[in-house]
Amino acid sequence: MIEIRGLQKRFGEKVVLDGLDLTVPRGKNAVVIGGSGTGKSVLIKCVVGLLPANGGEILVDGEDVTKMDERELVRVRKKLGMLFQGAALFDSMNVGENVAFALRRLHNYPERQVRDVVEEKLAMVGLRDIQHLMPAELSGGMKKRVGLARAIAAEPEILLYDEPTTGLDPIMADVINDLLISLRESLGVTSISITHDMASAYKIADQIAMLYKGKIIEVGTPEEIRNTHNPVVAQFVEGRAEGPITAEHEDFIRFVRRSEESGIRGEH
């Protein structure tokens, strides 16, 4: 369903994605893991065409989005739904208007159908009768679920999740994980999730891919990744302070430790 070949993305002199390859089979959920600033969000923004690639191919259902103009991208985006990090709800719109946004802008649904779909999708994420509320009146977990309802409103074939559990307490994070699994099973969608939350990754993934230095360095099932022999992947998934990833930042780590020691001596 999604095939990424040799994807390159840079910002000025900064290379973020450097020949990245990733294949996501139809109906499966690929979870991309990696440290902060490694380019996970850049990856899915390239997939949806929000950021132009500097090289490579991104095939969505056989069509290369890197070669499309804006009109063609709009057509392909109708197959896509996206849950942005922080939900990214429109502050000036109430919940119902947020969920209905794509239905009105991209699909031109009749207004009665819009209202029915909004009610149905909010119910699917466990929220009823809140269409009139504004985003400022919602908790973090509710915002995530409204963002999810908006992402699935037009019943896309592909869902993209940008840090779906970030900022949530462990219980609400697990609620969101269960929702993602339920939606995949009920809607049959293909999805890419990006996260550094390994509990979430292990639970929702069919396959996990590790992004490091602009490339996917390992792909496997949750069990294969949990038992990896790659020292970089192992350090990340185990959350260890010592290892090859932190070895690259020794100067910064020494600075932090000196600062901590100085603070302790100052207190005494």
Structure notes:
With 268 residues, this protein is α/β, with parallel strands linked by helices. The protein has two domains: 2-229, P-loop containing nucleotide triphosphate hydrolases (Rossmann fold), CATH 3.40.50.300; 230-268. The chain is built from eleven helices and ten strands. The chain has helices at 40-47, 70-77, 95-105, 111-124, 140-152, 170-187, 198-204, 222-226, 231-238, 244-247, 250-267, and strands at residues 2-11, 14-24, 29-33, 55-60, 63-64, 80-83, 158-162, 190-195, 207-212, 215-220. The strands form two sheets. It has a six-stranded mixed β-sheet with strand order 6-7-8-3-9-10, sandwiched between helices. Helix 3 packs across helix 4. The model has no long low-confidence stretch (mean pLDDT 88).
Short synopsis of the structure:
The protein is built from eleven helices and ten strands. With 268 residues, the protein is of the alpha/beta class.
Q: Could you tell me the number of beta strands?
A: 10
- What does the radius of gyration come to? 20 Å
Number of domains: 2
Oligomer: single chain
Major sheet description: 6 strands, mixed
Strand content: 15-25%
Net shape: globular
CATH class of the largest domain: Alpha Beta
Distance between the termini: 61 Å
Helix content: 40-55%
Report the average pLDDT across residues. 88
CATH architecture of the largest domain: 3-Layer(aba) Sandwich
Q: Helix-strand pattern, N to C?
A: EEEHEEHEHHHEHEHEEHHHH
| Unreliable sequence segments | none
Helix count, per DSSP?
Answer: 11
From the 3D structure, determine the CATH topology of the largest domain.
Answer: Rossmann fold
Computed structural class: alpha/beta
Biggest sheet strand order reads 6-7-8-3-9-10
